[in-house]
Amino acid sequence: MSEDDGAATTDESATTEGVSTTDEPATTERRALREAETGRWDGVRGAALALVGVGVVTRRPGLVLLGAVGVGYALYAGVGEAPAATLDVTRTVSDVTPEPGDEVTVAVRARNAGDAPLADLRLVDGVPPGLAVVDGPARVATALRPGASVAFEYVVRASRGEHEWEALTAVTRTPSGSRERTTEIDPAEPARVVCTPELAAGGDLPLRGLTTRYHGRMPTDVGGAGVEFHATREYRRGDPLKRVDWNRRARTGELATVELRKERAATVVLLIDARESAYAAAEPEGRTAVEAGVGAAGQAFRALLDGGDRVGIAALGPVDCWLAPGAGTAHAAEGRETLATDPAVAPTPSGDRFYRSRWLRRFRRRLPADAQVLFFTPLVDDSAASLARRIDAHGHLVTVLSPDVTASGTTGERLAAFERRERLRELRSAGIRAVEWDGESFPVAVARATARWSP
Amino acid sequence: MVAVSSEAPPADGDEARGEGPVGDASTDPVDRPERDARPPALAVVLSLVAAGVASLAALLAAPLGGVLLGGATVALAAGSLRRSHRLLSWAAGIGVVGLAVAGYRGGGVEALLVGGVALALAWDVADHGLSVGEQVGRGARTRRNVAVHAGATLLAGALSVGVVYGVYRAAAGSRPVAALALLLFGAVVLASALR
Amino acid sequence: MRPLVAVGVAAVAVGFVAAVDRGVASALDPSTTVVTLIGALGVVQGVRYANARRDRERRAADPGDPERRAPATVPGAALDERVGRATGSALRGHRARRELRDRTRELAVAAVARDRNVPAEAAADLVEDGEWTDDATAAAFLSRGSAYPVRVRLRAVVSGSSRYGFGLRATVDAIGRLEGDGERGDGEGGNDGGSGASDE
């Protein structure tokens, strides 16, 4: 942490788009709470009085004088009022669109815009709840004359999502420290950091096994003359040789693969559990199930798109999120945006109420008839499991993908872990495929599972 | 059965990020340091220096007084170390008793007054340091805040001493105890009334 | 407040005058005894005042901990709260105790059914009779009939904690041992993949 006062922080080499650093924020909001007594100097009056008394009794003028000094301090403590912090705050972020894991330096400058001096000022910055500070507390203590300013900086580590800074807390005290007042200061344009991770390039092969091309409930023609020619598409390395359109090859020399109707691309919806209960982790500072689910969904999204399927995204939670199944580069970009910044899968829960039946009705309406659902959920409650069964019963193949965020420390945690495993078993015995993974690579877990599923 | 095909090469020119959306590096303990809530070093040092001055002043008057003030110094250090406001209050109390003893043993008025202000400063800066540590912490910049606060307390004490000593000198020799008592009684009443 | 302020101001004024002017001072100077009494009163009052104020709580604003990410809930935290209530005072924890016992019983029945490959009713009977585990404490916890072994009852009395707590922990351990055989993963053996799987 730099020790010099008032130094400008523009030695960071990076753009500062989007956040003005020079104009006065005209609509800064300041919310000052009521003044409170700290009670620091309580007892000084009593001590002073006692000293005077002893001095009088023993006829020692020195003691009486000492008591007088005590009274002087009592007066000093009694006068004055903790001022409301009349500050103009500007925040500068070194990189507004970082990659996940990057370190972002935040520089805060606060100027005393009032005409009263702030003799005892403590500032605590409103770091977004989804970000963690890795260097230096986001705080400073200082004293500001009118017009003076203080600057401090700290470093946060970027993580997926859109993070917006909250109000800066300013605590002011009288010079003697006897009274204190808290003010919340919200600059007109809050600083924002948007971190959009790339979808894993290359798409993991094992993830293609998650969707089934031969969905038993899809109307298909199977066998005999019914194996009808559907379309030709460009040959992809690895397509079985018996599917190659040899006629075309003979004619034009191009390689093309015949797509039979049975091999139609699947329509998949990645459903991410983003209810408040899904923001659970094995430890309070750990990676939540929503983060793990979004990460896994990102990998699946890319893999399935590359495999020719049409993929969509939805979120189970109070905030609406629906990206209809599609394909192509534009759709891939949309998917990446949704997974990164959609408020439904924000890094911290929204706190809104969740209406389950309403959500289910809407979801069923939107879900295409032939769509399969990949459900990413930690399974920490029965509601998720029953939802999976409901959707499956409505005719959509559901595969449950569950990150293991249970701990095994206390009795309650172990019980929760047992109950989760029981839910997984119940789902499997109801015919719903379930894959769980825990810290190890998601594609590896899927590979193990698909090996078991396929004949 | 899923057709086996090899991985398609990366579509864009970007190199595949090793972590991608799967792993942030955000779970190693280094990233989550505990905030250092200890009082700023300057506050602790100032407080101990002031307490030392007070001890010296009391020692001049009476050894017992000096010992008590020494004990108060130790208690102040302990209070800062263990971050206990209560301990600091006890230290101040012991200090006041020490000064009372020194005054009783016939210490010089000047030494006593200096000791009094020094003790008040010592306690006040230590207590202030604790609250700054709790709300801001040692890792942040706090020097100016502590310095301004210490200066203000010192100034208030100097003013009080100035007035009191001035009155004392003006009334030299006559020992108007009653008058002084009356003065003080009035001042205490005023202080309570004005709050 | 007003009269008090007036008194204070008057006292200060007279005091100042008396301090400087000898004549007024000598007029004011009361007898020694009175002065001593007043002094003693002052001491007592002062000490009482200081003491009373000492007990008042020190108050300061708490700005929280924004440097950390918002903490995530750990699955089972609510259950731990219920465990705390269940093992706490005897009266208030009644509902928590029943709920925890029911949930543990469900888990035990499922684990036993799976472990010994018996239908659910048979497993429920085994649990009821306390024959599902070697641990006597766990068996006693879930069966309505049997009592805790003497050792456990003694420990409970000596340590002051409730028997329920011992029973619960032993049962959770026992279930854990049963679970341990069925390794976590994507399906134990072939029974999960095969039964009722919708694809071919």
Provide an overview of this structure.
- The complex is a heterotrimer of chains A (455), B (195) and C (200).
- Chain A has 455 residues and is α+β, with helices and mostly antiparallel strands.
- Chain A folds into four domains: 29-35 and 82-195, Immunoglobulin-like, CATH 2.60.40.10; 44-78, no CATH class; 205-214 and 264-453, Rossmann fold (3-Layer(aba) Sandwich), CATH 3.40.50; 224-262, no CATH class.
- Chain A is 27% helix and 27% strand.
- In chain A, a hairpin with a 5-residue loop joins strand 16 and strand 17.
- In chain A, 53% of the residues are buried.
- Chain B has 195 residues and is an all-alpha fold.
- Chain B is 69% helix and 0% strand.
- The longest helix of chain B is centred in the last third of the chain and has 28 residues, at 143-170.
- The model of chain B is unreliable at 1-30 (pLDDT under 50).
- Chain C has 200 residues and is mostly helical.
- Chain C has two domains: 2-43, no CATH class; 77-183, no CATH class.
- Chain C has helices at 2-20, 22-28, 32-55, 77-86, 94-116, 120-129, 136-142, 150-159, 163-181, 191-194.
- The interface between A and C is large, with 93 and 73 residues.
Give the overall shape of chain C: rod-shaped
Q: What is the makeup of the main sheet of chain C? A: none
| Helix share bin of chain C | 55-70%
- Biggest contact: A-B, 94 and 92 residues
Q: What is the count of β-strands of chain B? A: 0
| Sheet of most strands of chain B | none
Radius of gyration over C-alpha positions of chain C, nearest whole angstrom:
37 Å
Tags for this entry?
heterotrimer; A: 455 residues; alpha+beta; Immunoglobulin-like; Rossmann fold; 4 domains; six-stranded antiparallel beta sheet; 9 helices; 27% helix; 27% strand; elongated; disordered N terminus; C: 200 residues; mainly alpha; rod-shaped
Q: Secondary-structure blueprint of this entry?
A:
The complex is a heterotrimer of chains A (455), B (195) and C (200).
Chain A: E1 29-32, E2 36-37, H1 44-58, H2 61-78, E3 87-93, E4 103-112, E5 118-126, E6 132-135, E7 139-144, E8 149-157, E9 161-164, E10 166-173, E11 179-186, E12 192-195, E13 229-234, H3 246-252, E14 256-260, E15 267-273, H4 289-306, E16 310-316, E17 322-326, H5 329-341, H6 356-366, E18 371-376, H7 382-393, E19 398-403, H8 411-429, E20 433-437, H9 442-453
Parallel strand pairs in A: 15-16, 15-18, 18-19, 19-20
Antiparallel strand pairs in A: 1-11, 2-11, 3-4, 4-8, 5-7, 5-10, 6-8, 9-12, 10-11, 13-14, 16-17
Helix pairs in contact in A: 1-2, 4-5
Chain B: H1 41-61, H2 63-82, H3 85-104, H4 109-135, H5 143-170, H6 177-194
Helix pairs in contact in B: 1-2, 1-3, 1-4, 2-3, 2-4, 3-4, 4-5
Chain C: H1 2-20, H2 22-28, H3 32-55, H4 77-86, H5 94-116, H6 120-129, H7 136-142, H8 150-159, H9 163-181, H10 191-194
Helix pairs in contact in C: 1-2, 4-5, 5-6, 5-9, 7-9
